[in-house]
Amino acid sequence: MKQLWHFFENLDEIVYVSDVDTYELVYMNHKARELYGLRSLDDLQGHKCYEFLQNCSCPCNICTNSQLKPGEFHEWTYYNPVLNKPFALKDTIIEEDGHRYRMEIAIDMSIQAKQKQTIKEYSTNEALVNEGLRLALSADSPDQSIHILLEYLGKTLQSERVYIFEENTDGCFDNTYEWCAGGVIPQKDNLQQVPYDAVNLWFKTFRQNQNVLIKDVELTKESDPLAYEYLKPQGITSLVVSPLVTNKKIIGFYGVDNPPANFLGHISTMFQVVGHFMVSLLKRRELVKRLENLSYYDQLTGAKNRHAMDEYIEHVSANKSIGVLYGDVMGLKKLNDTKGHSAGDTLLINAFISLAQHFSDYSIFRIGGDEFLVLCSGITEDDLFARTAALRNTLEQNLVGMALGCIWEPHCDDHLPKLIAKADDLMYQEKRARYAAQEPVSD
User: Fold this and answer.
1) Alpha-carbon distance 422 to 425, whole Å?
2) Of the ranges 73-77, 95-99, 424-428, the best mean pLDDT one
3) Per-residue pLDDT reduced to its tens digit, 341-368
4) CA distance 176 to 340
5) What average pLDDT does range 165-180 have in this prediction?
6) pLDDT band for position 3 (cuts 50, 70, 90)
């Protein structure tokens, strides 16, 4: 169970876990501990959730434990008088070793806004924001949540386009998500690698904890010509843009184009609240990517693993042709024994690089210590064998000894495992022949 809590440790949301039956706190993430002035998890011992979190002498009347079920989330909002902050809450039950635990994720609705102003605006924006969060949190993945939230904002705010830009490794900005109203031309593909200079003046505003609010784009033609060059061709007449901030660093921005003029101020206030939730979804997306990477990819070479192979086989199209290439890296054991595992790892990496040079548009799997498998759905027979011939030359140039078995069928049908077995047999025939032509090698 401690491993599960680890994934919530560095989230910006407040996360706490308590025993349903005893009300004892068993976990609070870093954000929660910081908020309540705790130095470590050891400081939680002996605290009841209702005493510590709500300053109550007995279980809270607002407690939702009776409404919670394992595998489902109960979503609600609550103004915490102890912290003097409004929160959007997401609660569930987790069962482990005969114990039932309540886990609550709390999103601070006052982040990035002055407290008095946020609380004043909260009553106006509460229904709008809560419904958007409810819909987003009901999605199966962070990506879906983001798309749902953008669509909800776009429709509710009667705008033409809602979008997210994220900073990339080049220091430029990519439009990573967008929602467009009917009849509005999508712009995402045209808005990649936007240079920092184009949004430089926006960032000066962001650093002053303010949103960019443009009522008339034409007024920026002289004052901000670089941004104007991007905005004018898109047909943008007005917009509101808000920063995405984590750990005091601006990692991007999100905005809305051409909303009704009387909505501009309202949107600017609301975006200060929603921005924090947007950042949380982006962080969750990255967490999911890391978990998927661990689940589906070999961490040494970057090839997909057996788990990914099983899923591929389950969903491969039966009506398309299929090419199967089975490879075995020769001499790996001897290299590990004589020069160490670092040298063996380098050999495996070079083997994958060689395969990827010719089959990067298909699926490459590492399915054993020294075995690789390439599955090519929809490939032609001539293309498969031409690529395999070119691969042999690349392997030789990269000093990688690899025995190969290759087979092609016009229809995959439901016998892909049999084809893999045949390719495996062909690979072993080549491997035995290659070993027979040289001194005996134990591998």
Assistant:
1) 5
2) 424-428
3) 999 999 999 999 999 999 999 999 999 8
4) 43
5) 94
6) low
In whole angstroms, how far apart are CA 343 and each of 246, 336, 351, 376, 440?
40, 7, 12, 30, 21
Give the Cα separation of 281 and 294 in Å (integer): 20
Asked if 25 and 48 count as a contact pair (C-beta separation under 8 A), the reply is: yes
Both tokens of 211, joined, read: 């949103």
Give the whole-angstrom CA distance, residue 398 versus residue 386: 19
Look-up of token digits 């010509």: 225
Asked whether 297 and 305 are in contact (CB, 8 A), the reply is: yes
Tokens of 411: 């229809």
| pTM for the model | 0.53
CB-based contacts of 133, cutoff 8 Å, min separation 6:
75, 88, 107, 149, 277
Residue 163 and residue 254 in contact, taking contact as beta carbons nearer than 8 Å: yes
Instruction: State the burial class of residue 170 (Cβ atoms within 10 Å of its Cβ: 0-12, 13-18, 19+).
Output: exposed
Inter-residue long-range contacts of 165-171, CB under 8 Å, 24+ positions, other chains counted = 165/191, 165/194, 165/199, 165/252, 165/253, 165/254, 166/244, 166/251, 166/252, 166/282, 167/250, 167/251, 167/252, 168/193, 171/196
